[in-house]
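Need a sequence for this fold. Nothing fancy.
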């Protein structure tokens, strides 16, 4: 190959085709309008805004409040240069030559669709309590402000809501109305479920046949609930209160009374108790003891030598 041919070939390699500028050319003819969904590359992030390269003659800008409404959300910590963000156009020109965008608005639209699914499937999700307000607490889910009524903050009644400020708890979505922008969450059901799981683990540790001390909590027509020394509660059925037939548990027991009970069963994560079993065992022991006391025993020499041959 001659020097002239080589120079011609190198020159041809350097000539850029129209295809090399295809995206830029299309962008120059494109006209962005309100409501368009665009994807841009982050070129700069500050505490208050994000600048995007939209491959358009104007750059995109997302203000902090249009990125995420969560007060704990920090742009410089969450968004990095080079990543891509998809957002919806609020204004084609914000007055300073920028395309004003909102990732939050687009995210909210997708979030409400997700909330519908979470609601139907009763999915448990974690949220952080960011604010205590009258009647409950505030937490953000998918960047959307949600309200947790005081009665649904925990498995039990919460005296001081401020104890939950800053805490992360599990919740379920119980109301999701996009048209009213109404998102209500509940921590009660997940807390009760967790409480139940922990209780079942403790019940599984109980040994059938073990005798424990307890306190009568409540009395019903069918029996009494006894709080055991290990903190668990079991049912003392009316048929297991006494070996004598009784018409009502209250004939023998009263609330607050200290009792000794035997664990009969822990099937289906329920503790079945008996006082009658202990009573019958004690009676049997007394009979054996009385027999031993009244009986005679001989260990004399004649008894030892009986049956022996010399």
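Here you go.
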């Amino acid at each position: 190959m001659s020097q002239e041919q080589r120079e011609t070939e190198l020159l041809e390699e350097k000539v850029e085709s129209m295809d090399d500028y295809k995206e830029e050319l299309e962008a120059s003819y494109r006209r962005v309008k309100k409501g368009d969904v665009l994807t841009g590359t982050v070129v700069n992030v500050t505490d208050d805004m994000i600048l995007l390269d939209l491959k358009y003659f104007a750059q995109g800008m997302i203000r902090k409040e249009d990125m995420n409404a969560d007060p704990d959300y920090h742009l410089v910590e969450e968004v990095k240069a080079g990543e891509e963000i998809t957002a919806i156009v609020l204004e084609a020109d914000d007055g300073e030559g920028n395309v004003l965008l909102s990732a939050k608005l687009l995210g909210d639209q997708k979030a409400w669709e997700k909330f519908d699914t979470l609601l139907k499937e009763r999915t448990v999700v974690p949220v952080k309590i960011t604010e205590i307000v009258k009647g409950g607490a505030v937490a953000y889910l998918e960047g959307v402000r949600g309200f947790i009524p005081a009665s649904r903050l925990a498995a039990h009644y919460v005296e001081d809501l401020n104890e939950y400020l800053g805490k992360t708890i599990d919740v379920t979505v119980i109301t999701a109305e996009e048209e009213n922008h109404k998102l209500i969450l509940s921590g009660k059901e997940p807390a009760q479920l967790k409480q139940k799981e922990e209780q079942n683990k403790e019940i599984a540790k109980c040994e059938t046949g073990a005798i424990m001390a307890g306190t009568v909590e409540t009395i019903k027509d069918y029996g009494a609930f006894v709080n055991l020394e290990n903190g668990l509660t079991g049912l003392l059925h009316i048929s297991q209160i006494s070996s004598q037939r009784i018409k009502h548990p209250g004939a023998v027991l009263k609330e607050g009374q200290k009792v000794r009970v035997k664990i009969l069963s822990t099937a289906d994560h329920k503790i079945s108790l008996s006082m009658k079993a202990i009573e019958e065992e004690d009676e049997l022991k007394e009979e054996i003891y009385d027999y031993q006391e009244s009986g005679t025993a001989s260990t004399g020499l004649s008894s030892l030598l009986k049956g022996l041959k010399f």
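For context: The two ends are 133 Å apart (CA to CA).
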